[in-house]
Specification:
single chain, 2 domains, 5 strands, 290 residues
C-alpha cells in the first residue's frame, strides 16, 4: 500500500511523529511493527491479514512504548473505537496521536492465513460489521471496501444458547470456561484492560482464585466480561489469542447486546460520547437492588 508508506515517510521526515505503529510481514504473516526511520517505511503493509488491534500498544501500562513520544498509529474501525475508549477514560490525549485510518473489508481469523478473504476464513466479529472506515482519523488511506460476507453468525449462536434453560446454559459455559489455562492472553491483548494491577492478581484479599479450575475460571471470565460492559470494542483479539479456543467474543457480544437494549448505547469511535458507566440519570432504574 504505497499511499500508506508515503504518508508515513512524510510524517517522520516532517517530524510530526517520532514513530509509526503499523503492520509488516514476517514468515508467520502480518505482525505489528514500530518504524522510527523514514527509510524503513517500505516495510509497512495493510490487508485482510492485519488482524491485530494496535490500540492495545497505546495503553499507559506499556511504559516502554510511551517513551517513544508522539506516535502515528494505523487503525481499522474497530481499533478506532478502542482509541476513543482510551481517550474517553483519560488514558490517552488525542493531541499525542496521529491516527491513520485504513479502509477495511474484514480480516481473517489467523494472520498467517495466505488465502484471500472469504466466507470461510473471515473473523466472526467482521460478519455484520457496518463500518468500513474509522471516522476518528487524521488521514484515511486505502480503496473503498464492500461489506464483508461470512458464515459465522454470532446472533444466531446466541439465540440458540438463549433457548436453553438456565441449568443447560450454566453447564455450557462452565464446560467452555473450564478449558481456560489462566494464561491471561485475553487480558494482554485487550486494549481496554489497562489496570496497573488486575483484580485477578490481587492476593490480599484474593478476589479471584488464580488456579485454573472451574470455580476460579468462572469468576475470572465473568468478572472480566462485566468490566468490559459498555467498553468492549468488539475487536475479537481476546478470542483470537485464547489458546483454548474459548468463544470469549460471544460472551462479550451478549453483554454488549444487553447494554444496547437497556441503555440504547453502542461503543463508538466518538471519544466525547458518554457511556452508561460514566453517566448518571435521576430516572435510572434500580430494580436490581429491590
Amino acid at each position: 500500500m504505497q499511499e500508506l508508506r508515503d504518508l508515513a515517510k512524510k510524517l517522520l521526515l516532517d517530524k510530526q511523529v517520532n514513530a509509526i505503529l503499523g503492520y509488516e510481514w514476517d514468515r508467520r504473516g502480518a505482525r505489528p511493527a514500530f518504524i522510527t526511520e523514514a527509510g524503513d517505511c517500505d516495510r509497512l503493509v495493510f490487508d485482510h491479514r492485519c488482524v491485530q488491534n494496535l490500540a492495545a500498544y497505546l495503553s499507559p501500562r506499556r511504559a516502554n512504548i510511551a517513551q517513544l513520544g508522539r506516535l502515528a498509529v494505523v487503525i481499522k474501525a474497530c481499533d478506532a473505537r478502542a482509541v476513543a475508549g482510551l481517550i474517553r477514560e483519560n488514558q490517552l490525549k488525542r493531541e499525542d496521536l496521529v491516527l491513520i485510518g485504513v479502509r477495511c473489508g474484514g480480516v481473517v481469523v489467523n494472520p498467517s492465513d495466505s488465502e484471500q478473504l472469504n466466507a470461510e476464513n473471515i473473523a466472526p466479529r467482521c460478519v455484520g460489521c457496518e463500518q468500513r472506515e474509522p471516522t476518528l482519523a487524521d488521514h484515511l488511506v486505502g480503496e473503498t471496501q464492500s461489506a464483508p460476507v461470512g458464515k459465522a453468525n454470532r446472533d444466531l449462536r446466541l439465540s440458540e444458547i438463549e433457548k436453553l434453560n438456565p441449568e443447560e446454559r450454566l453447564s455450557l459455559w462452565t464446560s467452555l470456561l473450564s478449558q481456560c489455562t489462566r494464561c491471561y492472553a485475553c487480558r494482554q491483548v485487550c486494549p481496554m484492560c489497562f489496570c496497573e494491577r488486575c483484580i485477578a492478581d490481587k492476593t490480599q484479599p484474593a478476589w479471584i482464585e488464580s488456579s485454573p479450575h472451574s470455580r476460579g475460571n468462572f469468576s475470572w471470565h465473568l468478572t472480566r466480561a462485566l468490566h468490559l460492559a459498555g467498553r468492549c470494542v468488539d475487536c475479537g483479539e481476546c478470542e483470537r489469542a485464547c489458546p483454548a479456543g474459548i468463544p470469549l467474543g460471544l460472551l462479550n457480544h451478549k453483554v454488549a447486546r444487553i447494554v444496547a437494549s437497556r441503555y440504547g448505547y453502542a461503543v463508538s469511535d466518538d471519544p466525547s460520547r458518554e457511556t452508561p458507566i460514566g453517566s448518571y440519570r435521576l430516572d435510572d432504574e434500580q430494580e436490581f437492588i429491590a
